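Study this pair:
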Amino acid sequence: MTNAKIIEITYHFGDASVPPEYHRSYTITVTADKVGIVVDSYGKILADKRYEITNKQFNDIKNSLKRNKVRNCTLGDDEGCSGGTTERISFSDGENEIFSGSVYHCGGKDTGNLCGDITNFAEDVRNLVPGLDELCL
C-alpha cells in the first residue's frame, strides 16, 4: 500500500462510560482539502464542523501514519474490563476501506488490533481541528 492511494483518513475517539454531560466522543475525517469533526454524547450530536486544509496538511497526516507505524496487530483480550476509552483509525481509497484498526484502553491495558504510536498520530489529526477543546465542552 502506498500513501498515494489514501483518499480519506478517519480517527475516532470513544469516550469512557461517564454521565452524558461529561461524555464526549468524536470522529475526525480528513481528506485532501477538508477536515470534518462530529462530537457526540451517546449519539446526540453536539458539534458538526468542517474546515478547509491544504494538500500539504493532508500529505503530512498520511506521512504521520507511516512515521507513527500505525498498523494492525494482536493486543490480546480485555479480560472483562469495562468503562475504558476506544480509538479507531481507518483509511480508504475513496471506494474501499484499505485499513481499519481499533484499540480499547481499559484498566491500564490495551486490547484490540491497532498498534503504533496512536497517541502521536491522534495529536497530529486533532491539531487540524481549530478549537477542538471548545467543541468538546
Summary: The chain has one domain: 3-135.
